[in-house]
Specification:
The complex is a heterodimer. By secondary structure, chain A is α/β, with parallel strands linked by helices. Chain A has two domains: 231 residues, P-loop containing nucleotide triphosphate hydrolases (Rossmann fold), CATH 3.40.50.300; 251 residues, P-loop containing nucleotide triphosphate hydrolases (Rossmann fold, 3-Layer(aba) Sandwich), CATH 3.40.50. Helices cover 34% and strands 24% of the residues of chain A. The longest helix of chain A is centred in the middle third of the chain and has 16 residues. Chain A is globular. Chain B starts with 7 loop residues before the first helix and ends in an 18-residue tail after the last helix. Chain B has one domain: ABC transporter involved in vitamin B12 uptake, BtuC (Orthogonal Bundle). The longest helix of chain B has 27 residues. Chain B: This is Nucleoside ABC transporter membrane protein. Chain B: It is a multi-pass membrane protein. Chain B: It is found in: Cell membrane. Chain B: Its main location: membrane.
């Protein structure tokens, strides 16, 4: 048994209308890799924010190294040896690596010394990084290294990591795990937040599972199956996704040598992308975020207009058409960003339904809107996809992320598309709802539609896709059947551990 | 037209005087914007500084006290903007425009009794040795204290933003207030300090107009200088030395066109009067047209520590 480092007793935190944490107690040993598991909204973030001093608990206490620990702010937490790697928003894109690191330290050394220390630590832990580069130009994996090195320079006793692998390729994940094991062996405790169950089973020795703000179980994840963990998180058993056997039909969507510039200054241009999707088939497109996923969706939905022959739908060139024309013909899409792209935040669900379904569902007559028809369609979507909302008049902004995601996907699926393109269909959705969305996509394909699923969740792609390809810097890899594909091969298709090769050249 | 009447030494010397109010206001606004706040009230703060500085200088007989009072008055005015936008989360654009209107109205109210009066002005302060150099001496080194101070302020802002930890934190807050908050920095407090500094600089700029450049009080005497300062910050890509170039360019063209008018050029006066605005914006657009603009990523976005 390890010596106790951090002991948490009865932590409670309530926000107006929600209890984020209720009487949470557990302890972390020195050098222990401890997983914190739970669905979105289970209270993981609030809990670690209390440990890091960003949020003050309503009641309960913490002890660090045997003495009372109640950090007033992150500065106090860092001074006591607690460091945190954030999931996102803690880096400054316009600043250099060294400046970003300095901002996260209590007493940063002089710039020259700091640059030297960054190089030293990055070599010790196999995380190559140039302190002078601007963070805006770094890949997701490199950005995470900046955060980790920022923490390591403070020699923390407890390192909190919030979903660190969501942006990494499998090879980069392996490198990260080696670093974490090395840290653990040196006596640094790690509190690891994730909902990727297989990762937790390979890395962590203890897992605390939260549901609706309460601890439901503390167990050893190595002795528990991923399915058991998932059911503990959700609190119920749910149906696994089943695939119907089907023979692919005629080509419905064909993309020929698609090249397009990104409308976004920091975006990625598409370079010579070609693929075909047949009726009844699901094509999965993976890759690390920011490698052209948004641009590919935009080019297929009509937001980016290209030369007509670059995108063909049922043999008709549609590359030159805008979104309305493509929607009317049956080529539908659902983008990644729910609020502001897929849905207008301040408009009601009914209004949002009209925005994409007007033409196909006949919700518009002679330029006038058919409100009762639109309400009916919206209610159908809400019922079929189990969207938890008071009613179709609710503003999109008022829905939780997962519920809005169900609505946004459901709205397209219910229009009986001929071709459906979705980006990150289950992002931020709980396991049961994610299974329902995936099942709906498979069902759609079973009825003869062609489906393109763009996602960063490899498990999801393995579950729904018939064939797999990866986007890497705007180029599409070879397309391979999912059956028999190994994680190793997928990683290489995604570009491997890109920056590692660079590091060898420099060394 | 007789170009011979235009003396290049006098031209350069007077362009520095003419540019100083805009330079002061612009460098202050640049710091505000670097912290992620867009304060469109520069014009209102400048004219408040102009009237308060003038009134205090006339009543006390000390232009130094006038400048100090102007800086304080405009900084306090800017704090009202700060409280509205940072604590009450009002819209920055609307609040800034409101601040301009308040400043214009307030200044004409305060300034009514002072119209037509003359104020004591700042004496010239020739720098020893440097001022005696031929040509360059009278051009650059025979000015009043505020001209030197304004240039020193540009250098200080540049060095402060680039080399100090406070400057790094200020830039970080303007770049991503969520990230800065997550690391434990007091976003609202840092922004309020930046707004206060920006207000003080605008006040100094306004007082320079009414105490040195003109030196007299007339209603609405800033005549858009605050707006030009705002434009210069944007087109200078938020870089201190480019702000200096922009302000001097504007001052230079202003002085040159006045000289041309005096020399009796045949170009209509309207074209000459609009030329400083046109040329400044044109040149700065060309400078900033090349690639990276460097606007602080959180500029104008409201911050609330709710997550």
């Amino acid at each position: 048994m390890r010596e106790t480092l951090l002991e948490i007793k009865g932590l409670t935190k309530a926000y107006p209308g929600v209890i984020a944490n209720s009487d949470v107690s557990f302890s972390i040993g020195r050098g222990e890799v401890h997983a914190l598991l739970g669905e979105n909204g289970a209270g993981k973030s609030t809990l670690v924010k209390m440990i890091y001093g960003l949020v003050k608990p309503d009641s309960g206490s913490m002890r660090l190294n045997g003495s009372a620990f109640a950090p007033q702010d992150p500065h106090a937490a860092r001074a006591s040896g607690v460091a945190m790697v954030f999931q996102h928003f803690s880096l400054f894109e316009a600043l250099s690596v060294a400046e970003n690191v300095a901002l996260g330290m209590e007493n940063p050394p002089k710039p020259r010394d700091l640059a030297r220390q960054i190089r030293e630590v990055s070599e010790t832990y196999g995380l190559p990084l140039d302190p002078d580069r601007t963070v805006g130009g770094l890949s997701a994996g490199e950005r995470q290294r900046v955060e980790i090195i920022r923490c390591l320079l403070q020699e923390p006793k407890l390192l909190i990591m919030d979903e660190p692998t969501s942006v990494l390729t499998p090879q980069e994940v392996e490198i990260l795990f080696q670093t974490l094991r090395k840290l653990s062996a040196e006596g640094t405790a790690i509190l690891y937040i994730s909902h990727k169950l297989e990762e937790i089973r390979s890395l962590c020795e203890t897992a605390t599972i939260l549901r609706l703000g309460k601890v439901v179980e503390t167990c050893d994840p190595r002795d528990t199956t991923a399915r058991q963990l998932a059911e503990l998180m959700v609190g119920a058993s749910f149906d696994a996704v089943t695939r119907e056997a089907r023979a692919p039909g005629a080509v419905r969507l064909a993309v020929h040598n698609l090249s397009a510039r990104s409308p976004n200054a920091f975006g990625t241009a598409l370079k010579d992308v070609s693929f075909e999707v047949r009726a009844g088939e699901v094509l999965g497109i993976g890759g690390v975020a920011g490698n052209g996923q948004d641009e590919l969706l935009a080019a297929l939905s009509g937001e980016i207009v290209t030369r007509p022959e670059m995108v063909e739908f049922d043999g008709t060139p549609v590359g030159g058409q805008g979104p309305e024309a493509r929607r009317t013909a049956g080529l539908l899409s659902a983008p990644e960003e729910r609020l502001g792209h897929a849905a207008a935040p301040d408009m009601s669900l009914t209004e949002n339904a009209i925005l994409t379904a007007a033409a196909r569902e006949g919700l518009m007559k002679n330029g006038f809107l058919d409100w009762s028809g639109a309400r009916g369609f919206t209610e159908k979507v809400i019922k079929a996809f189990d969207v938890r909302t008071p009613g179709p008049g609710t503003a999109a902004r008022a829905l939780s992320g997962g519920n809005l995601q169900k609505f946004v996907i459901g709205r397209e699926v219910m229009q009986r598309p001929e071709v459906l393109v979705v980006n990150q269909p289950t992002w931020g959705v709980d396991a049961a709802a994610a299974a329902a969305i995936r099942q709906a996509l498979l069902h759609l394909a079973g009825e003869g539609a062609a489906v393109v699923v763009i996602s960063q969740d490899l498990d999801e792609l393995m579950e729904v896709a018939d064939r797999f390809a990866a986007l890497n810097e705007g180029r599409l890899s070879d397309i391979r059947p999912v059956q028999g594909l190994t994680v190793e091969q997928i990683g290489l298709m995604m570009g491997g551990a890109h920056d590692m090769e660079v590091a060898h050249v420099e060394a | 037209m007789d170009l011979g009447t235009i003396n290049p030494i006098l031209l350069v010397a007077s362009l520095m005087v003419s540019a100083t109010p805009i330079l002061l206001a612009a460098i202050g606004e640049m710091v505000v914007e670097k912290s992620g706040v867009l304060n469109l009230g520069v014009e209102g703060m400048m004219i408040t500084g102009a009237v308060v500085g003038f009134a205090v200088a006339v009543n006390t007989g000390s232009p130094g006290l006038g400048f100090a009072a102007a800086a304080l008055a405009s900084a306090l005015l800017s704090l009202s903007f700060g409280v509205l936008t940072q604590f009450l989360l009002s819209n920055q654009v609307a609040t800034g425009l409101g601040l301009t209107l308040v400043g214009l109205g307030l200044s004409s109210l305060i300034g009514k009794p002072y119209e037509g009066m003359k104020s004591p002005t700042l004496p010239d302060l020739p720098l020893p040795l440097l001022a005696d150099m031929p040509v360059i001496g009278p051009m650059l080194f025979q000015h009043d204290l505020m001209v030197y101070l304004s240039i020193a302020l540009v250098a200080a802002v540049w060095a402060g933003l680039k080399f100090t930890r406070a400057g790094l934190i200020l830039r970080a807050v303007g770049e991503s207030h969520d990230a800065a908050h997550a690391l434990g920095y007091k976003v609202v407090r840092i922004r309020l300090m930046a707004i206060f500094f920006g207000g003080a600089c605008s006040g100094l700029g306004g007082a320079y107009l009414s105490l040195v450049r003109v030196p007299q009080w007339t209603e609405g005497m800033t005549a858009g200088a605050g707006w030009i300062a705002l434009a210069i910050v944007v087109f200078a890509s938020w870089k201190p030395w480019r702000v200096l170039i922009g302000a001097y360019l504007f001052g230079g063209v202003t002085v040159l066109q006045l000289n041309l008018q005096a020399a009796g050029t045949r170009l209509p006066v309207e074209y000459l009067s609009m030329s400083p605005y046109l040329i400044t914006i044109l040149v700065l657009v060309i400078i900033s047209a090349r690639g990276y603009h460097g606007a602080p990523a959180s500029l104008g976005r409201p911050f609330h520590a709710s997550h």
